[in-house]
Design goal:
The complex is a heterodimer of chains A (about 325) and B (about 350). In chain A, the strands form three sheets. A seven-stranded mixed β-sheet of chain A has the order 3-2-4-5-7-6-12, with helices on both faces. In chain A, strands 9-11-10-13-14 form a five-stranded mixed β-sheet, sandwiched between helices. A two-stranded antiparallel sheet of chain A has the order 1-8. By secondary structure, chain A is an alpha/beta fold. Chain A is globular. In chain A, about 55% of the residues are buried. The longest helix of chain A is centred in the first third of the chain and has 15 residues. Chain A folds into two domains: about 180 residues, 3-Layer(aba) Sandwich (Rossmann fold); about 130 residues, Rossmann fold (3-Layer(aba) Sandwich). In chain A, about 35% of the residues lie in helices and about 20% in strands. In chain A, helix 8 links the parallel strand 10 and strand 11. Chain B is of the alpha/beta class and about 350 residues long. Chain B has one domain: Thiamin diphosphate (ThDP)-binding fold, Pyr/PP domains (Rossmann fold). In chain B, the strands form two sheets. Chain B has a five-stranded parallel β-sheet, sandwiched between helices. In chain B, helix 9 links the parallel strand 6 and strand 7. The longest helix of chain B has 23 residues. The two termini of chain B are about 30 Å apart. The model of chain B has no long low-confidence stretch (mean pLDDT about 95). At the A-B interface, helix 3, helix 4 and helix 5 of A face helix 6 and helix 7 of B.
């Protein structure tokens, strides 16, 4: 085994996919000559040339839409959004066009396009460059949504997304790009979109999370005997895995990098309550961000994001009392 | 009619090489839209529908200049373009009536006509959405080493949305084989162009993106076809995109609920005086391809065909409940019939 950073895994996935299939090409702002602001695509243009590693103008609507058109016509574009917020000006192309092309053509056209984007908080980028924004896309019929949580999952999700015949969004928590994981690249490695992973077995509570919150959950779990599920995909998501786990543990906690109003945990809790009500020993609990923009100040941003200690205390309260704890900002 | 003789989208497209067929197609577009209007009044059409009567020369002129595997994106005002490109009257009327014989199986409706065999992507119901997609289709054509072109058809209202500017810029810097066709019918929905757009000619905006901008008389089918041919040749030769502005007029309001009372008096009559069907009939008469009562006879024939299509559409079944779930994604259980341009 070898230590590999998540950014290297993403680069390797793109490199391997382009080597394996001439229809794959990459497109985005500064991904070519500059190698990307986070060095995710460093050297890719040297290996595959400027016709397949394309620097675009700062025109997200144009180049995401071009991805749709190229995909319809037999290519497999991988479109990069430098920060997920930038997709705001291009959502029509993703949600309204890409996601309905197959439907409106009654299966004669498809959009095998991948949109990958850096996302999430923790590095002082301020409130307009630190959100996850998965709720903008989650739940759209015809569109899949995945979130990487490290080097291995980034590789496995991205390769699966590129293989997929329909449009897929892969969010890459920016804070994890430099994180190392002990994993040897296997170019046949794929994760199954829509499936989660049990990352730690436990008996007291099912702790469901994804993305950069996974490492927080895993650290917290040591103190509270939690079973930790990394959802990996937020749409569709692995209901069977969560329900099976909750049936054993009797408790559900979600750990989400989103304010409560937009977080994916609402859907998870609703499904579990409806389908596993009889198994629950305590009300489900959601650990989320406060209902406030991401603060820039380092101390405030650190407070804003759930820590392992905070998660452990929240879970401990739930297990010990059978009631849901208050979030820190209302105490 | 035997199965063999039933026109297909491809055979209908090929037929457009004939001058009289070009006129017949323009009449067909006019008559199909009249039928749609009637079907609306009779309650067979849901939602809304957007007519383009008066713009028939634009549709036929564009279709004449393209090959069937050139890729076209078009707006929700697309009945005429779909028919011109080759989609059958039954495919269009059936779709608008929500029947299985519709070109999208009755799941799309008036705003979402589609014709894969003749290069038509599902028509776009969001202003500007087709332009970036056309850029991508052109990228694919280049990447796959073909000389195919893509065409984005849109209205004058689109010239003020970001997608227009982003797409022209994107196509220009990559020298993509795209022809941007602006159908300037003077109205963006209910608003006259002088209230929304500070330039009279949309084509002037091509200058900002270092591409040719051409203004064409949209009432003359030949003028449209000739301008398109120049732009298409330029694109096929790898010389990049062109913006073609076609001056035309829609006789109806924006959609079925719009009586178009906002138009200045006399404007409609002035445009009707240059009706594209009459102008083209005059031209064919001058070419000795049309004589005496030919136009009336042709119109009678087309009306009968359209009436037959209406009857067949209304007699056709509605889609089954299962169609709600079909083709949402590859895993939705429906048979995948992936259309593959350029590998036929």
């Amino acid at each position: 085994m070898a230590l590999i950073r998540m950014r290297q895994a993403v680069l390797q996935a793109l490199d391997d996919a382009m080597a394996d299939d001439p229809a794959v090409f990459c497109m985005g702002e500064d991904i070519g000559a500059a190698g990307g602001p986070f060095k995710v695509t460093e050297g890719l243009i040297d290996r595959h040339g400027p016709d397949r590693v394309i620097d675009t103008p700062i025109s997200e609507m144009a180049f995401l839409g071009a991805g749709v058109g190229a995909a319809v016509c037999g290519m497999k574009p991988v479109v990069e959004m430098m920060f997920i917020e930038f997709i705001g000006v291009a959502l029509d192309q993703l949600l309204t066009q890409a996601a309905t092309m197959r439907y409106l053509s009654r299966g004669r056209f498809s959009v095998p396009m991948v949109v990958r984007a850096s996302a999430g908080a923790g590095q002082g980028f301020g409130c307009q460059h630190s959100q996850m924004l998965d709720h903008w896309m989650r739940g759209t019929p015809g569109l899949k949504l995945a979130v990487a949580s490290g080097a291995r999952s980034a590789y496995g999700l991205l390769r699966a997304a590129i293989d997929d015949p329909d449009p897929v969004v892969v969010l890459e928590p920016r804070i994890l790009y430099g994180e190392r994981e002990d994993w040897e690249v296997d170019r046949s490695y794929r994760l199954t979109l829509g499936r989660g992973e049990v990352r730690r077995k436990g008996g007291a509570v099912t702790l469901v999370t994804c993305g950069a919150m996974l490492r927080v959950a895993l650290e917290a779990a040591e103190a509270v005997d939690a079973e930790v599920i990394d959802l990996l995909s937020l749409w569709p998501w692995d209901q069977a895995m969560v329900l099976e786990s909750v049936a054993r543990t009797g408790r559900l906690v979600t750990l989400e990098e989103a304010p409560k109003g937009t977080g994916w945990g609402g859907a998870v809790v609703a499904e579990v309550v409806a389908a596993a009500f009889g198994h629950l020993k305590a009300p489900p609990h959601r650990i989320t961000l406060p209902e406030a923009p991401v603060p820039y100040n380092g101390a405030l941003e650190a407070r804003y994001l759930p820590t392992a200690e905070y998660v452990a205390a929240q879970v401990t309260h739930l297990v010990a009392t059978g009631t849901t704890p208050q979030p820190w900002w209302t105490e | 009619m035997t199965q063999q003789n039933t026109p297909t989208p491809l055979s209908r497209r090929a037929a457009l090489s004939d001058r009289r067929a070009q006129l017949a197609r323009m009449i067909e577009i006019r008559e199909v839209e009249a039928a749609i209007q009637a079907l609306f009044s009779e309650g067979h059409v849901r939602g809304s529908t957007h007519l383009a009567n008066g713009q028939e020369a634009v549709a036929v002129g564009i279709a004449r200049a393209l090959d069937p595997d050139d890729v076209v994106t078009c707006t929700y005002r697309g009945h005429g373009h779909a028919l011109a490109l080759g989609v059958t009257p039954l495919g269009v009327i059936g779709e608008i009536c929500g029947r299985v014989v519709g070109c999208a199986g009755g799941l799309g409706g008036s705003m979402h006509l589609v014709g894969p065999e003749v290069g038509l992507l599902p028509t776009f119901a969001i202003i500007g959405a087709g332009l970036p997609v056309s850029c991508g289709a052109a990228m694919a054509a280049v990447a796959r080493g073909t000389d195919r072109v893509s065409v984005a058809i849109f209205g004058d209202g689109t010239a003020n949305i970001g997608a227009f500017h982003e797409s022209l810029n994107f196509a220009a810097i990559r020298r993509l084989p795209v022809i941007f066709v602006c159908e300037n019918n003077l109205y963006g929905e209910y608003t006259r162009i002088n209230l929304s757009t500070p330039v009279e000619d949309i084509a002037i905006r091509a200058q900002s993106y270092a591409m040719p901008g051409i203004v064409v008389d949209g009432q003359e089918a030949d003028a449209v076809a000739e301008a398109m041919a120049v732009a298409v040749a330029r694109a096929r030769a790898g010389e990049g995109p062109t913006l073609v502005e076609v001056k035309t007029y829609r006789y109806s309001g924006h959609s079925r609920s719009d009586p178009a009372t906002y138009r200045p008096p006399g404007e409609l009559d002035a445009w009707r005086a240059r009706d594209p069907i009459n102008l083209f009939a005059d031209r064919l008469t001058a070419e000795r391809l049309l004589t005496g009562d030919d136009l009336a006879a042709m119109t009678t024939d087309v009306r009968a065909e359209v009436a037959a299509a209406v009857a067949e559409a209304l007699a056709a079944p509605e889609p089954g409940i299962g169609e709600i779930f079909a083709h949402v994604d590859a895993a939705s259980g429906a048979e995948e019939v992936r259309w593959n341009f350029w590998s036929k």
